[in-house]
Amino acid sequence: MQSFRAPLASPLFRQTPSFPFMHASEQNQVFAIIDQHATRAHEASAAWAHSSPTVRSGVLRALADALDARANELAVMADEETGLGIPRLTGEIARTSFQLRGFADEVVAGVPYVQVDDEAIPGPPPSGRPRLTRVMVPIGPVAVFAASNFPFAFSVLGGDTASALAAGCPVIVKPHGGHPRLSIEVAKIAAEVLRAQGVEEGVFSMLDCDMSRDANIHLVKHPLIAGVAFTGSYQGGVALWRAANEREIPIPFFGELGSINPVVVLPAALHDDPVAPAKVLAASMLQGCGQFCTSPGVIVVVDDQRGREFVSALGDSLAGQATHRMLSEGIRNGFEDAVARIKANANIEVVLEGNEAGAGPAPRLFQTTGAAFIADASLHEEMFGPAAVVVMVPSVDAIPDVLSAVKGSLTVTIWGGDQDNHENREIVRVAQNIGGRVLFSGVPTGVAVTRAQQHGGPWPASTDPKTTSVGYAALQRFLRPVALQDAPEWLLQRA
Ligand code: NAP
User: Fold this and answer.
1) Could you tell me the fold of the domain covering 263-439?
2) What is the dotted CATH code of the domain comprising 24-257+462-494?
3) Which of helix, strand or coil describes residue 286?
4) Segment among 263-272, 331-340, 349-358 with least mean pLDDT
5) Distance between CA 231 and CA 214 in Å, rounded?
6) In the Cβ-directed half-sphere of 97, how many Cα atoms lie within 13 Å?
7) Which atom of ligand 1 is nearest to the CA of 334?
8) Best exposed site among 190, 206, 347, 435 by fewest CB in 10 Å?
9) Residue 462: CB within 6 Å of ligand 1?
10) CA distance 354 to 365
11) Does the beta carbon of 294 sit less than 6 angstroms from any atom of ligand 1?
């Protein structure tokens, strides 16, 4: 009844040599398997698009229940592969099932089925008009590229999968190679749930995590794939975004690529105590060993006595802190390369470069001036790990230009902006120009799943700044409006 095939029985789940070492015959075999998945997803599209709220929400809730039922065992498996720790992973499973149930609630509330009806008005235009009913149509099969850093919440049954299923689109997951065993286990759970729910074949399936880069491109370019959701690196995201746009018929590509998440620490935030905010920020930088897409990477501080005390306290709070191992050797190497590039920049001063105290890298803190940061785009690159650049500015007036230089970011945090004055208004205006979420207290790490949430932002934070990949608005990515003009009543009842 459903599309998922036991992974170990599929040729895709054999260890396949990676590009560029894959032989043409193996490559063709992989392409053929992608074709099968896409065909099955396409065949399931119409029925799933027309599935009732009861059926669709029932599947989402059953997936949530199945994850919760196996939470302890899955957290252990995820920890073995990612090193993220049991408490964090247990919390992430709870968030993932919460989000599946939340999308089920949206389905029951009728969000994906919403209609806007304009009654006919007799007479000539412009006031006279036919009856128009705007309906939302699921776009069709969606390829989901799972992320490395959230093995549940942004992976096989994460937000992209949940939102696409809620919208009425079948999903084909390309799992991340950082947690292959876990991905296979979660996909098996999904397959059992869908089978038990009697869902049409092809609604959910998963490919191999190690298919070759060419195969990833083949998936995105497959004529039966109608949209792509991606979380990962700028380079990987851009390669796949290009592929989506180079197709004979381009398709929507919803990529979350990279973000440096500026934190603006205004003098008002340091007036009473510069040390406590520094400790809070250090804890945020260290969360998940800095492998959060919302990790604070740029800290903007006014160069006065309190500002300097804050930077010193931030260095002290980070110094000697043990971090856990990073998600993969590739990510660790990428972090060390990024840190080395920043350190080698002539305009950078090292605030902290400690020794490793755990299995992960030592936290790093660098400092530069506002003028240097604005002039040098290489200082805006993401260091995916526990590191940040402090940008010292001579006065609050200089902050908007520093933020403008960042261009696109998932978040901008402003501490101490409570007063309504010209400077604060300017900072908030620019923060809204570059950021998807603007925070006035707390830290950017941790993204609540709600209706109002926005997890995106101008390029390079996301490839489509009008959309979000977290929160219930995420399902709108996979719906397309159609206006029905003078539609017969039977169709409107069914739509
Ligand atoms: P990644 O390298 O971008 O990989 C993500 C997915 O894209 C994988 O399935 C990968 O397939 C595929 N891919 C990557 N490059 C491709 C290409 N040129 N052509 C076709 N497919 C491609 O991301 P990652 O492995 O998670 O982490 C690497 C870096 O990404 C990190 O160091 C960090 O800088 C960044 N990152 C950012 C965020 C964020 O939210 N901002 C989150 C995670 C990671 P394969 O399995 O074939 O490699």
Assistant:
1) Aldehyde Dehydrogenase; Chain A, domain 2 (3.40.309)
2) 3.40.605.10
3) helix
4) 349-358
5) 18
6) 20
7) 32
8) 347
9) no
10) 9
11) no
